[in-house]
Design brief:
The protein is mainly alpha-helical. Helix content is 76%, strand content 0%.
């Protein structure tokens, strides 16, 4: 949702919508986005680590961090590329949604087993 708000900043301002992106701007919203991703990875990894008898394979869901990091680099590029920003934001919105779904699915499988 944060990526969507970064993409729609001008429209949200024009419509007087109050979002974090409108309040803080795109640069700080990007930092917030990074913190959300990092916090999710760290907290989920620590949770699995705290389980008794956790095994190495149970941390494989953290590999999903790679496409999320790539997405973050593309979003950073979009912040400074005004000509292609909408297309980049749309692509990364899709990539982040898919990556988040896969992360949730893999994390759930780890918890079930």
């Amino acid at each position: 949702m944060n990526i969507n708000n970064m993409r729609d900043l001008a429209n949200d301002k024009a419509a007087n919508k109050i979002t974090l992106v409108v309040l803080f701007g795109r640069q700080k919203a990007f930092i917030y986005h990074l913190l959300l991703i990092i916090a999710a990875m760290v907290c989920s990894g620590l949770y699995i680590y705290s389980l008794p008898g956790s095994q190495f394979w149970q941390f494989l869901f953290l590999l999903i961090a790679s496409p999320l990091i790539k997405s973050c680099t593309q979003i950073y590029i979009a912040l400074n590329d005004f000509e292609n920003e909408s297309a980049i934001f749309n692509e990364q919105l899709k990539n982040t949604a898919i990556s988040t779904f896969v992360f949730s699915l893999l994390f759930s499988i780890v918890l079930i087993t």
